[in-house]
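note to self: dont lose this again. the chain is below, predicted strucutre after it. 267 aa total, dont forget to put it in the shared folder this time
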Amino acid sequence: MALIEVQDIVLDCERSGEGPPLLLIMGMSGTALHWGEPFLGELRRDFEVLAYDHRGVGSSSRLEGPLTIAELARDAASLLDALGIASAHVLGISMGGMVAQELVLARPDMVRTLTLGCTYCGGPGSSLTSAEVFQRLAAPMMSGDREGSLRVAWEINVSPQMARDERARDRYMQIAQTRAVAVPVIMAQLQAIAGHDTSARLGDVTAPTLVVHGTEDLLLAPENGRLIASVIPGARLEIIDGAGHLFFWEQPQRSADLVRSLAAVAA
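---
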């Protein structure tokens, strides 16, 4: 990965693969490593993949003060500007999907196609993580039990069937331990999510849009994906049966095929 100067900060970004640019925007507490090599390998066949760490994460600039989703969207736009990329296909998942929504609304010229995975738009009919699931996540994290926190996060982020896959779990744990995200950064990201609401503006999106959600998503219920697809003109909805929040970990080839099929529309 390379440090890219973006206005008054630096963002750590990896460029790999060949083809039209595809910007990947990661979710809360995630890093560029969390896309997983199976999914990234599939994408590199057809795209120049741009995977970066948000401010406060990894080798990107330290977080100073509170965050907003709109601010993270400006980071994404400024990263593309700094790389000399006028427009890119954009894939955002979870919090990254919220960032992608703000990006396409603020800079529609930059977004060739928009893929929104396991995300949320705010407003009537949407729902954030349930109190029960949030408490399961927060308890070990706030007590300082790092390993316990990661194990709970794994179980909640994937389907029950995937959660039993010990090799996949070990890969997830290793990634999280290799590039740990500090608790204050996660809390700032959580506050940014709480203030996110694009529901009244998504009707202005003109980019070809794909919305993907797993039926077993415990963090953001699939009704969120259905709502987003219903308000973005012409959006295509793909519900992946049996997949959890990290649908691209569970079905990397199918997930990459969906991105490829959308990009072909704008070719």
